[in-house]
Design a protein that fits this description.
Layout lengths: L1 E6 L2 H4 L17 H4 L2 H4 L2 H6 L1 H14 L7 H14 L4 E6 L5 H4 L6 E2 L2 E8 L5 E3 L19 E5 L9 H10 L2 E5 L11 H7 L3 E6 L11 E4 L2 H17 L1
Parallel strand pairs: 1-2, 1-7, 2-3, 7-8, 8-9
Antiparallel strand pairs: 4-5, 4-6
Helix pairs in contact: 6-10
Bound molecules: adenosine-5-diphosphoribose.
Length: 241
């Protein structure tokens, strides 16, 4: 069985990572309610105030050290191993810039919106693994440009990564599952319609109704930390039966 899972901020919420938009969880504010999105998540915002943008992503990167994967991340890693053992495949496509899927044991995670642990030189395009704070004084290790390094994050107005690869995986799957995403940002929000047009089964697991809930064959409402392990047990149990 080949499955593609698309994840969003909701899968990391129970780990203590802020979602971008407010949800029905009263304990959490959305990041975009705390910071103006056009200032911290656009190329124009970075050009206007790189100090603010570096500060915003330095906080997010530092916060990685304070959070751990939750049962939803671990369950997806278990599903990946379980399917692979039988010649199947689970492809995890994430909009998240955290590294909790990997720390939960998942392999080959496709980060379509970039990664906090990666830095990109805006002068020469060099990319490298980096956990340190960035500033306007940071120097690219490849071209030596001071101020070249920026967070390797796909901002609004930029092209998401790996789109051809993601589409190929959707074409090859039999089931497309969306977990913890509001369906507010394209192209990720359109993958369910692509999957439907290709005749795939579709399932949504989300705390609240998303913008695209009506596109899915089935929607399950609740917390990913509970519902994802239950769903994984169903899939692996059906396989073993
Ligand atoms: N379990 C399941 N779903 C949850 C949980 C939880 N514990 N907590 C919140 N959610 C759901 C919310 O109901 C909401 O629908 O997760 C969703 C999170 O939505 P967003 O904050 O919009 O996050 P996401 O969909 O990942 O955002 C997409 O927007 O700004 C950009 O680049 C950013 O990648 C991000 C993209």
């Amino acid at each position: 069985m080949n499955i593609v899972v698309l994840t969003g901020a909701g899968i990391s919420a129970e780990s203590g990572v802020d979602t971008f938009r407010a949800s029905s969880d009263p304990k959490r504010m959305g990041l975009w309610e705390q910071y103006p999105v056009e200032q911290v998540a656009t190329p124009e915002g970075f050009a206007a105030d790189p100090v603010l943008v570096h500060h915003f992503y330095n906080l997010r990167r530092q916060a990685l050290a304070t959070v751990e994967p939750n049962p939803a991340h671990f369950a997806l890693a278990e599903l990946q191993k379980g399917l692979a053992a039988n010649g199947g495949c689970l492809t995890i496509v994430t909009q998240n810039v955290d590294d909790l899927h990997e720390r939960g044991g998942a392999k080959d995670v496709i980060h379509m919106h970039g990664e906090l642990t990666s830095t990109l030189c805006s002068a020469c395009g060099w990319r490298w693994h980096n956990l340190d704070d960035l500033s306007v004084e940071s120097v690219c290790p490849s071209c030596q440009t001071r101020g070249g390094p920026r967070p390797d994050i796909v901002w609004f107005g930029e092209m998401p990564y790996h789109m051809d690869t993601i589409e190929a995986h959707i074409k090859a799957c039999s089931l497309f599952v969306s977990i913890g995403t509001s369906g507010a940002v394209y192209p990720a929000a359109g993958y369910v319609q692509m999957a439907r047009a290709l005749g795939k089964q579709t399932l949504e697991i989300n705390l609240d109704a998303s913008d695209g809930s009506h596109f899915f064959h089935e929607s399950r409402r609740g917390k990913a930390g509970t519902l994802v392990p239950e769903w994984v047990d169903e899939i692996l149990g059906a396989r073993d039966a």
